[in-house]
Amino acid sequence: MLLKVTKIKSGYGKVSILHGVDFNVLPGQIITVLGPNGAGKSTLMKAIAGQLPVSSGTIEFSGTLTNGLSAQEVNKLGIGYVPQEQNVFAELTVMENMKVAAMPFKDAGSRVDRVMDHFPILKERAAQMASTLSGGERQTLAISAALVAEPKVLLLDEPTAGLAPIFVDRIIEWITELASEGMAVVWVVEQDPEKILTVSQMTCFIEGGRSTAWLESEILLEPGRLQQMLLEDKKCSK
């Protein structure tokens, strides 16, 4: 098991959001995370990434307990995280964003070069301010900056929300390629999940701060099955 989350509880200050989530990820898997608004999906990603404290339960990565580690320490272990918003430094150029992401590593320059070589669009925009990028370009930069750390698990929180279909397709193709090379990807999605379900192996439903169901993603592509599961989650959350 690459990532094992066992009955974790977490939240913001005295406000508890997660009430006992179980979550497992194998190398090369794409895991889709679904659930209603406010279910705790983003909170789960932040807790795994070390950005929120875990009050109880455990998170293990490659056999190492990550409870209590800082976000930077978790990142250096091999867990990358791309939040839905504020995921780039808008006041910096594309290249400066990449260099900031590489700062914790001794071979920073070569790491940036490897990622930039893989994405010509970033090379073309290297001197451009991140604030002037299109939505799709900005998400490409955010994911690329996370890849500088060469993570074994990549956590994505709604990376295609509001993007044009062409960018959605490109990011899905890109993530599928990364997974085929052995990287595990955990993908939170709320809008139009069908495209992501076609490339993911398993889907976890989060409702009321708990993991309520684990299903093979292909099952959810059966007519009416996804709507049925989402409706059941809504009923449970009332």
From TrEMBL:
PROSITE patterns: ABC_TRANSPORTER_2
A Pfam family assignment: ABC_tran
Domain of life: Bacteria
Keywords: Amino-acid transport, ATP-binding, Nucleotide-binding, Transport
GO-annotated biological processes: L-amino acid transport
InterPro entries in the cross-refs: AAA+_ATPase, ABC_transporter-like_ATP-bd, BCAA_Transport_ATP-bd_LivF, P-loop_NTPase
Record Gene3D superfamilies: P-loop containing nucleotide triphosphate hydrolases
A molecular function GO annotation: ATP hydrolysis activity
Record-annotated ABC transporter domain positions: 3-233
SUPFAM superfamilies: P-loop containing nucleoside triphosphate hydrolases (SSF52540)
Family statement drawn from the similarity comment of this UniProt entry: Belongs to the ABC transporter superfamily.
Protein's name in the database: Amino acid/amide ABC transporter ATP-binding protein 2, HAAT family
